[in-house]
Amino acid sequence: MLQSGRPAAGTLIVVSPFDGRELDQIPTAGLDHVEDALIVANDTFRNRSKWLSIPERLNILEKTAHIMSSQIEELTMLAASEGGKPLADSRAEVVRAIDGVRLCGETLRSHHGNVIPLGTTPATTGRLAFTQKEPIGVVVAVSAFNHPLNLIVHQVTPAVATGCPAIVKPAGDTPLSCLRFVEILREAGLPNEYCQVAIANDMATAEKLVTDSRVSFFSFIGSAKVGWMLRSKLSPGTRCALEHGGVAPLIIAPPYDEEAAMAAILKGGFYHAGQVCVSVQRVYAPGKTAAKLAKTLAERASELNVGAPELESTQVGPIIRPQEVERIASWVDEAVTEGATLLCGGKKLPNNCYAPTVLLNPSPQSKISLQEVFGPVVCVYSYESLDKAVADANSLPVSFQAAVFSNDINVATSLYHALDASAVMINDHTAFRDDVMPFAGLRESGLGVGGIPYTMEDMQIDKMLVIKKLVQ
After folding, report:
1. 210 shares its domain with 75
2. How many domains are contained in the chain?
């Protein structure tokens, strides 16, 4: 979907992660295509006569949400087929994406500048100053596979709302939802030059797209290794937001609602087969009850229906790639060898699936305790004091969302203050999110703040006007 008549650099074959069937063949972009795209985007931004007015942008957003609302089932099946998230969860993703488009419009209506308090000193007397919002410039968005529609909405729709020309590179595993969303934007009236898709044929092409001096804002969702590497190569002046992963902790602090906690851990740990950057991975429970909690969790996890993502009955779908299944299996096997008790799962299943797995008391030095597993594995650790649980929860170089289960408000708020996290959920799982909320990885987990209102703020500048009263 680049604005270029050049032949494709190659072809990307998109397959189902569950059964490997071919879903589509997509042309890929090379260095020349990226250069063409950057020229188009930059010329669009530099020519202010091409800027879209706020009413025009609002109209496009309203029409986009309307079109998407009429195609919920089609968009759901597309996302489930290419990404492997079960149908019910993919449907929830589509509904959330529609709400995200609407939220962009609502946020745009409320965006405003500020009056600057001049006239408070002799030097500023007779002057009036205020700011207004303007688009920052060309936005390049590099996205991840695990929410193939909603992540694109998070990254691209704020650019549309703020008037920034965008070039988006979807994950190679899941480009189809992105392509369809951009088609819908164009059906809704967005000029083609305001959103282009570049499916890079290699890393050099992707790096050229990201690091070019014409890029004003870089939005990245994906691995920390790639994100921090690209950030180090950004052109001077390019702003960025990076969203990586975590190893999310959840602390159980009695008294608490056992059934509510179990349901939350089950959902937060095994939703989308654990392929969520804030998925519940580390559960800290009091020493006397940890084994019982882990056993109950394992019993519930064993009952989850693992299978084809296109089926309504499926609760846990496939892992995105075969090599990731092998990695998850090796981490679990290593943890068991190093002393963890395997309570359920721990085995590869047909069709790129991995059985929901619960481990009790893995070694603190096992990979499963130190790194994001990005798979359907939950580890339960026993603790003897809350201070030790907090210390263990805070011990890693990653920091994102955390959770606490407790009916004691004093304990809950104390843990909120003590946990190293950008958000702490009380009596809910770590993966809870609404797009109006800030969403920020700290330390190695990311840079900047996601969430639609915050992303829109990043994609704009505050342009100041100063008026001096002329003496007659």
Report:
1. yes
2. 2
CA atoms within 13 A on the CB side of 84: 32
Both 230 and 262 in one domain: the answer is no
* Count, residues in the chain: 472
Q: Which of 268, 250, 255 is nearest to 424 (CA)?
A: 250
Chain segment 138-147, per-residue pLDDT in tens = 999 999 999 9
Per-residue pLDDT of 92-138, as tens digits, reads: 999 999 999 999 999 999 989 999 999 899 999 999 999 999 999 99
Do 337 and 211 belong together in one domain? no
DSSP 104-117: HHHHHHH----EE-
Q: Whole-angstrom Cα distance, residue 354 to residue 2?
A: 37
Active-site residue list: 243, 277
365 and 222 together in one domain: no
CATH number at residue 197: 3.40.605.10
Are 229 and 192 contained in the same domain? yes
Distance (Å, whole) CA 376 – CA 318: 10
The pTM assigned to this predicted structure is 0.94
Confidence band of 470 (pLDDT split at 50, 70, 90): confident
